[in-house]
Amino acid sequence: MTPLMASLDVTPVAGAGVVVSALPAWDVSAPGGVWSSAVRSLSDEELVSRIGEVEQRIRQARMQQLRLIAEADRRRLHTVCGVRSTQVWLQTLLNIDGQDATNRVRIATATTPSSNTSGDSENTTGAVAGPEVSLPATGEALGAGVIGLEHARVISRCVSRLPAHVRHQAGEVERLLVDNARRQCPRDLAKLADRVRYTLDADGAVADERAQFESRELHYATARDGMLVIKARLDRETGAKFVTALRPLAAPRPETDDIKDLRTVGQRNADGLSTLLDLVLDTDGTPRAGGQKPHLTVTIDYTQLKNQLPTNPTGGEFTAAGGAGMLEGTGQYVSPQTVRRIACDCEVLPMVLGGDSLPLDVGASQRTAPTHIRAALLVRDGACAFPGCDHPAGTPQAHHIVHWIDGGPTSLDNMVILCAHHHRTTHNHHWHIELQRGRPVFTPPANLDPARTPRSGGKAQPATHHHALHHLNTPPESRPPTTPPLAST
Q1: In total, how many domains does the chain have?
Q2: Which of 16, 60, 116, 406 has the fewest C-beta atoms under 10 angstroms from its C-beta?
Q3: Are residues 377 and 443 in the same domain?
Q4: Are 385 and 440 a contacting pair, CB within 8 Å?
Q5: In this structure, are 315 and 285 located in the same domain?
Q6: 285 is a domain residue
């Protein structure tokens, strides 16, 4: 078997301190098939051991590099190359990011005491601000390969920011963090370091919070493809509010027919934000603009809005109707099919436009789902009538089974309550909905279920309990004939 690893001994550089063994060299000349065969021949225990061993060697090799960097900084090699600092020199030498180079130089000089033998506080790197930091315990742990460079970065940042009146505790703080770094990931270690700062430097922690607040920003712009791009940096308090509000709305949906939620984390977060916006726009506490609650305005030709998709009884592909509506908020266009979905449950404001697209007459707005009908739908259907939906309480949307633009009445027997996701699913995939014995029944399209098996929906517990108790309290001779139960997810 071709050996997977071979040790290399490196002669220590003068002034660089003790140099650990370098990362074992891989026999790159060996054919790929040889390596595959060698790896596959390892037992599970050997494979786990080798992975951990390689990680340890990588960390040890990184510590060797840090000591070499410290010696290069002591010799001020960057001046020979005509650059202003060691980190700039290192960035060019290794082709790495500037921040990465800065971190390596900072940690190198802190974990190698001999890097500044003069004893003065001159900043030779041009990268490390603040008082000089010595991290012997961190260097020892790095050399042993039990912590990584990211752990060291967290420790260095915490110790270097200690105020003068607690600098005598720097060694104690470092040892505490190193001890925890052996069993915590860098992210968890950073939380502990944060707690140390709040304990030993309360004034500095408060100043950090104020600086974060002053650095807050949120930008949004419409990309060329019409999607809205959002970039934000939020202070801790606002960030916590955002996460608290978004997390339950972005949770994975429960499995249906043993099918997991196929959305990515990013897609779930985007859907959660959409639901969060629905909640905000539906509340009376939102500031009014021009005397009106915030609302979404869509302008579309009436004929285009009325055009339906061609009926396809087999549930296969559908051809979209032509035309477009314009979202007044962003100036972007959306299809009539999307407008029909939005218009299922909204304020409808009839407006007559002249040939020059200027308003000629404006009618009175009408809500397609009045309060009393919405309340009844919630009692009958719950937060969402779609089979298997576990949507949290929020702002459900009232869906017309026969759309009002097609003459469908705004009544309890022509509407169901759907969450935003399943409202979109119903429109996009053309699920057939009907009411049977007052309860909604959903039939999937053939491309999702060739058998098109009906699935019962609606799950509001009061209505379910009432139906069950009514059945129990009805004499056998008065009960309707037994019918096979509908399929349920």
Answers
A1: 3
A2: 406
A3: yes
A4: yes
A5: no
A6: yes
Q: Quick one: 74 and 101 in the same domain?
A: yes
Residue 473: per-residue pLDDT: 53
Q: What is the pLDDT of residue 102?
A: 92
Core vs surface per residue 104-143: b (16+ CB within 10 A) or e: bbbbbbbbbeebbeeeeeeebbbbbeeeebbbebbbebbb
Kindly state the tokens that stand for 352: 């007559």
Q: Both 155 and 254 in a single domain?
A: no
C-alpha–C-alpha distance, residues 290 and 123, integer Å = 59
AA identity, residue 426: T
Which amino acid belongs to residue 445? P
How far is C-alpha 100 from the geometric centre of its chain's CA atoms?
25
Minimal CA–CA distance to 152: which of 87, 89, 104?
Answer: 104
Quick one: pLDDT at residue 351? Answer: 56
Tell me which residues of the chain have a pLDDT lower than 50: 1-26, 28, 115-131, 289-291, 294, 309-320, 360-364, 460-469, 471-472, 482-489
In a domain, 9, yes or no: no
322 and 460 belong to one structural domain: yes
| Nearest residue to 399 via CA among 380, 375, 374 | 374
Domain boundary residue, one of 295, 328, 355: 295
State phi, psi for 362 to the nearest 5 degrees: -130, 130
pLDDT at position 141:
93
> 192 and 184 in contact (C-beta within 8 Å)?
yes
Give the Cα separation of 169 and 200 in Å (integer): 9
Tokens 């912590």 correspond to 147
In terms of DSSP H, where are the helices of 27-97?
32-40, 44-74, 77-80, 86-94
Distance, in Å, from the CA atom of 235 to the CA atom of 210, rounded to the nearest integer, reads 9
Answer yes or no: pTM beyond 0.90.
no
Tracing tokens 């009432």 back to the chain, one arrives at 466
Give the end of a domain, one of 295, 311, 337. 295
Distance CA 481, CA 78 (A): 91
**Token digits of residue 253:** 């949906």
| Total number of residues shown for the chain | 489
Is 206 a member of any domain? no
Q: For residue 423, what is the enclosing H or E element? A: helix 420-429
Whole-number CA gyration radius for the chain: 33
The amino acid occupying position 343 is A
